[in-house]
Amino acid sequence: MKIMRVYFISFLLLGVLVQLCNGGITSGYLRAADLPDDMPLDSDVFTVPSGPNTPQQVHVTQGNYEGNGVIISWVTPVKPGSNTVRYWKENGKPKSQAEATINTYKFFNYTSGYIHHCIIDDLEFDMKYYYEIGSGKWRRRFWFFTPPKPGPDVPYTFGLIGDLGQTYDSNRTLSHYEMNPGKGQAVLFVGDLSYADRYPFHDNNRWDTWGRFVERNAAYQPWIWTAGNHEIDYVPDIGEIEPFKPYMNRYLTPYKASGSISPLWYSIKRASAYIIVMSCYSSYGIYTPQYKWLEKEFQRVNRTETPWLIVLVHSPFYHSYVHHYMEGETLRVLYEPWFVKYKVDVVFAGHVHAYERSERVSNIAYNLVNGLCEPVPDESAPVYITIGDGGNSEGLLTDMIEPQPSYSAFREPSFGHGLLEIKNRTHAYFSWNRNQDGYSIEADSMLLLNRFWQNTKKRLLDAV
Ligand SMILES: [Fe+2]
Q1: What's this model's pTM, rounded to 2 decimal places?
Q2: 152-191+264-462, CATH topology level
Q3: pLDDT in tens, 218-229
Q4: What span, in angstroms and rounded, lies between the C-alpha atoms of 196 and 313?
Q5: How many angstroms is it from 352 CA to the middle of ligand 1?
Q6: Which residues surround ligand 1, an ion (CB under 5 A)?
Q7: CA of 229 relative to ligand 1 center, distance in Å
Q8: How far is the CA of 437 from the centre of ligand 1 (A)?
Q9: Would you list the domain boundaries of the chain?
Q10: Cα–Cα nearest to 312, from 341, 270, 374, 365
């Protein structure tokens, strides 16, 4: 009888343990409860460059589909200034020139400076280029590297930053990214840039300060833009009814090159990666332009040329924090079957101010009557990484769904950034670096096996 009782109690305890260990790891790190403060306007990171009308807020992004083009953007505060970009290869001559377009916009009682955008196509792959903007004494010089030509085994390293804002924590995140020994070569930015919309009348001066803040990195390597909810800037109360006006005036994307009709959704090739950027704040339902574009887009990805298929979208499909829980559900229901069918490797999202990495799961079997509404392990599914932890003034989300769901592999509400190091067609390494650690300490990491090439022998045989 005694033995039976011991067995029974052990059985009960085991049951409780299974319940508690349902999901992955929830970090036990305890954070300060204070909200991060925006850096004051006289902070050195916002310094206006010397000179009467000197270019500021300089940033580059990819300028074409293949990766050998850039869009160089900057603002002159007083008057249009020179619209010429002079550029040249390292150790190369002669210097070439390209002309920028110039635009301004108004937002309630704010008038922007003169926003310059210069598209330069047909650069050499895998090359360091210098460029100069402005004129005379106040000319400014920067540089960037073009990526290697798209190819299956081209190593390349992307940084991952989301929901950055302009607080002291934002500055720590950017510094950690810059100091990371992994050396990111381009930033995949998953939306919510300046948080200017948190100021009275969406004070667009805070778009300018943000542009000056990130210039120290974004002028030297391309940031690949995704639109978040803080880019919408729709404020009918003050007559501002054109969504995304500040964002779309300031941050261009090469959308036409991928057949998109909107700067908010597009795709690019970069080295061995094919990157699809989605807009969850534009129409995305069936029959919409974004849906139709995506339908074709997935079909034209050539995994033999660009093995790594990456999706950027602001609102996560899978996360287990209380705030924003299931906001991405309608997107997931529509698009997850394609992610699985086309073997997307990894989906990066922001919005949730914390970090989380999912297991490879899918939840596509459910059809209203079969009751199969639980995510299940799926080797064709992507890993979903939520990295909306850039450091903005809204603070971290600490309330989590308990117990940790089985789809959640690791979660921690800390500020930080990610690094995706693509090694070859089969292997990539993702790491998460949180701000409270040293520059070279990873708080979470994962070796990614490419979904298309993971069974290399079979793929190669099929290709013969
Ligand atoms: Fe957001």
Answers
A1: 0.94
A2: Purple Acid Phosphatase; chain A, domain 2 (3.60.21)
A3: 999 999 999 999
A4: 21
A5: 7
A6: 192, 228-229, 351
A7: 5
A8: 25
A9: 152-191+264-462
A10: 270
